[in-house]
């Protein structure tokens, strides 16, 4: 299994540009989430999904859209990038109800908005 | 606002010594998890403790949970240089069961000197 994969690893955008961060998992996990991590801080939940076709907002959803058309993929869209969105973005997946409730994280996408 | 606050923010010890990190949170939880993050990498799940548990062990890791004080501690015994990383606590506040919507603390940066 590849686990959770994210592309791209690095991205530089100009203010106002849009882009999509890709996340895929091959573990058939129902739950998928997007977090952002700012320097010296923990992760903050942006959006999450409990299954295909179902998404909901997390702690910091503004400026981001998500969709979940398949179990495997959970893309994060930045509609109009702003410097405040400069951050490292992590995607995670998990299976609810397992004894561990462990979340598996991808390697991250480092985004800079100029 | 972040759920967890960790203490200390940074910790430097010698190889072979024990490292203790503390986490405090604000609301009732379903479970509390600890993650490790090596510099520039994604998060790796270490251990999960449920709200009805008081102590849990995994290898050189020992986690305690005091729900009356809304606090947890992570002890790493016989530390190694490879333990150098940031450590984050994360809480799942789901009351009907785990939601996998994690709220992360700000992290403790552990440096183990060889």
Uncertain residue ranges of chain B: none
Give the mean pLDDT of chain B.
Answer: 90
Q: Give the topology string of chain B: H per helix, E per strand.
A: EEEEEEEEEEE
Computed CA radius of gyration of chain A, to the nearest angstrom: 13 Å
Stretches of chain A where pLDDT falls below 50 for ≥5 residues?
Answer: none
Structural class of chain B: mainly beta
Instruction: Indicate the percent of residues in helices of chain A.
Output: under 10%
Q: State the shape of chain A.
A: globular
| SSE string of chain A, helices as H and strands as E | EEEEEEEEEEE
End-to-end separation of chain B: 37 Å
Q: Structural class, from secondary structure content of chain A?
A: mainly beta
Number of helices of chain B: 0
Number of strands of chain B: 11
| Main β sheet profile of chain B | 6 strands, mixed
- Residue fraction in strands of chain B: over 45%
Number of helices of chain A: 0
What characteristic shape of chain B results from the CA principal axes? globular
Give Rg of chain B in angstroms.
13 Å
Describe what you observe in this structure.
The complex is a heterodimer of chains A (114) and B (114). With 114 residues, chain A is an all-beta fold. Chain A is built from no helices and eleven strands. In chain A, the strands form two sheets. In chain A, strands 2, 4, 5, 6, 9, 10 and 11 form a seven-stranded mixed β-sheet that branches. In chain A, strands 1-3-8-7 form a four-stranded antiparallel β-sheet, with no helix packed on it. In chain A, strand 5 and strand 6 form a beta hairpin. The model of chain A has no long low-confidence stretch (mean pLDDT 92). With 114 residues, chain B is mostly beta strands. Helices cover 0% and strands 54% of the residues of chain B. Chain B contains no helices and eleven strands. Chain B has strands at 5-7, 10-14, 19-24, 31-37, 43-50, 55-58, 61-66, 71-76, 85-92, 102-104, 108-113. Chain B is globular. The mean pLDDT of chain B is 90.
